[in-house]
Amino acid sequence: MEIKSTKLLYTIAMLVLGFFMILPFLWMISTSFKTPNEVFQYPIQWIPQKVTFEHHLKVWTGKESFLIYYMNSLKIALICMVGATFLSSLAAYGFSRIEFKGRNLLFMFYLSMMMVPPQVLFVPKFILFDKIGIYNTHWALILPGLFTIFGVFLMRQFFMSIPQEITESAFVDGAGHFRIFFQLMLPLAKPALATLAIIDFSWNWNDYENALVFLLDRDLYTVPLGMQNFILEFNIDYNGMMAATSAGIVPMLLVFLVGQKYIIQGITGSAVKG
Fold first, then answer.
1. pTM for the complete prediction?
2. b/e string for 206-240 if b means 16 or more Cβ within 10 A?
3. Of 75, 116, 225, 253, most Cβ neighbours within 10 A?
4. Which residues fall within 8 angstroms of residue 33, CB to CB, at 6 or more apart?
């Protein structure tokens, strides 16, 4: 009885915390349907007196349509997600299943690169991208986005949790590393792959700093940069910004809903063995 009461208290506490976490999102959606005079009205009116779709229509059909930013972000995020998931899995297989001298030391050195702040790399990347001719193109965001240290770490930990005897049996049957990787390890790693794909998509979809530094032309802008259209010379169009933000979270919600059942399983599996 005492255990049930404790679980009930935990459930209630989580519900309360969850409610406060989604409160800003509720305000965002509510504001997107309000008139400008109602935005900072106090006390807050969660349900607009007069629901208007003007701001949502302006986001897609206005002078600078959000559609181009949406398509740019989808292009970059999807290419980076697929590429980073595959390359991270390939590198993780090497670190977890192929024995070579200094493997663990090399892996620790690779992980240590996570301690380097990404802002430190802006100038070297700017010089490099300018030299090879990809500055002010989407390749300046796509190429670095194909490689993620966290992805290699996540997949390596998951592969380490798979019994070594499985791959040894495959070697005995005459399978090589590539066949084992594609036909054995990847099918077993679906939870970790889905988890990495969701996380990587979110990273690239929300990437503001790299887009700000490496993109100049408006027709190349991504969704985070497109939000600047609502910051006017003398004021800020909060209604339009909230409408654009509401539209901006839809792809992330869809990706999460599709792969949510794998997230806990993937992270738990990756933490089983270090």
1. 0.84
2. bbeebbebbbeeeebbbbbbbbebbeeeeeebbbb
3. 225
4. 48, 51, 52, 53, 55, 56
